[in-house]
Each structure stands twice: as structure tokens, then as C-alpha cells.
Amino acid sequence: MKKIEAIIKPFKLDEVKAALAEIGVKGMTLSEVKGFGRTGGKREVYRGSAYVVDFVPKVKLEIVVPDELTGDVIDAIMKAAQTGRIGDGKIFVLPIEEAIRIRTGERGEEAV
């Protein structure tokens, strides 16, 4: 199994969620996060004073899927979240050693 973490622009969430539902993703965890990448934030002026907005609001999705679904999930996120502009986000893929459903005790892919 793999855990896919995707950090995307908040207004793209509905499109990404719909794309993932189409390929059979049944669950995910969502967090509202803030961060910055290579651009280091943006410079803004408020009441005549310039300041740098370091942290930009983003949405972080965490999805655990069987190995064979990993490529499809990545493709769906890429297509749905991409705007072609700076700050579209990142996708990280991590191995999952074990998953356990607390309520039933199921393990592995059955727990997901």
C-alpha cells in the first residue's frame, strides 16, 4: 500500500475529490495547511506598508491506496489540480507498512 499526500490550491479541492471518486477512491483525510515553496511567498502593500506574506493557504489530502491504484490516483490529482501557475502544489508518495481498522481489527488493504 501507498500513502499519497497531495498539497493543492483550496479552490481545486472539489475537482480533485470528483476525479478521485471516479477512479474508486473511497476515503481521504483533509487538512487546511499553510506553506510556501521556491517563491518564498509574495510581497503585498497594506496601508502604505510593504510586507511579505510567507505562508499561503493550501489543502493537504492524505489517501492510502493499494499499490496498483497509486498511478491512477497520482494522474487524477495532477489533471484535476493543475492550473499551470506557480503554487499548484506537490504530491508525495510514501510506503505504508500496515493499516488497521480499529473498530473491526481488519488489517492491510481490507482496513482501508
Describe the protein in words.
- The structure is a single chain.
- This protein is α+β, with helices and mostly antiparallel strands and 112 residues long.
- The chain is 20% helix and 37% strand.
- Strands 2-5-1-6 form a 4-stranded antiparallel beta sheet, with helices on one face. A two-stranded antiparallel ribbon has the order 3-4.
- Helix 1 packs antiparallel against helix 2.
- It is elongated, with a radius of gyration of 17 Å.
- The model has no long low-confidence stretch (mean pLDDT 91).
Shape label: elongated
CATH topology: Alpha-Beta Plaits
- Strand proportion: 35-45%
- CA gyration radius, whole angstroms: 17 Å
Name of the level-1 CATH class: Alpha Beta
How many helical elements?
A: 2
By DSSP, the count of extended strands is 6
What's the assembly state of these chains? single chain
List the helices and strands and how they pair.
Elements: E1 2-8, H1 13-22, E2 29-35, E3 42-46, E4 49-53, E5 56-65, H2 70-81, E6 89-95
Antiparallel strand pairs: 1-5, 1-6, 2-5, 3-4
Helix pairs in contact: 1-2
Task: Write a short abstract of this structure.
It is built from two helices and six strands; from the N terminus they run E-H-E-E-E-E-H-E. By secondary structure, the protein is of the alpha+beta class.
